[in-house]
Write a structure and sequence with these properties.
Shape: globular
Number of helices: 2
Radius of gyration: 15 Å
Strand content: 35-45%
Order of helices and strands: EEEEHEEEEHEE
Distance between the termini: 23 Å
Number of strands: 10
Helix content: 10-25%
Length: about 180
């Protein structure tokens, strides 16, 4: 199914997952979809591997954690998640030589905490490679990055505007 992109999120300068100037990072771009799911399409590099041509489990965990933590800002734009607990299930090797799709969404939003789920899909956008569930503390983005660092927090225009993303997965959401 194709989902309309509602908004592209900001990137930072040095974040490991989304930092555009972090040479060791993934330089991901995050897109908010009409179904309330946050998505990034990315691929690892050789320095992200564990075994040959397999992404390291810590990198997989970081991608899922960042995606779920950012998903809160779909409904609360100034709010991000600070991880309290994250559980990851590694189902199949995550390849380095092809695009992967990382998805995150909120399953429960209550008070100052929220819960979310995430998954990584193979390039076919159907095969599940990893899943996660997490609990997060809500924090204002300005408190997280600090007012003095806002210059490193920026909207990066895509070379080709992404207006929709196709996913062959059914998402279950509850709040």
């Amino acid at each position: 199914m194709k989902y309309k992109v509602m908004r592209k999120q900001f990137n930072s300068d040095e974040c490991f997952v989304c930092g555009i100037h972090n040479d060791a990072g993934l330089k991901t771009a995050f897109y908010e979809l009409e179904n309330g799911v946050l998505v990034t399409i990315t691929r690892g590099d050789n320095f992200h591997q564990s075994y040959p041509n397999r992404m390291h489990g810590g990198i997989i965990s970081a991608l899922l954690d960042e995606t779920i933590g950012r998903a809160m800002s779909i409904t609360e734009p100034e709010t991000w998640g600070v991880t309290i607990k994250l559980e990851v299930s590694y189902r199949k090797p995550v390849p380095l030589d092809e695009d992967i799709v990382v998805c995150g969404w909120i399953t429960k939003n209550k008070g100052m905490t929220f819960k979310g789920e995430g998954l990584i899909l193979a390039s076919d956008r159907k095969t599940v490679l990893a899943t996660s569930e997490g609990t997060y503390f809500k924090q204002n983005i300005h408190e997280i990055i600090g007012e003095h660092r806002l210059t490193g927090w920026q909207y990066i225009e895509d070379a080709h505007a992404v207006t929709e993303i196709e996913l062959n997965h059914e998402f279950t959401r509850s709040e």
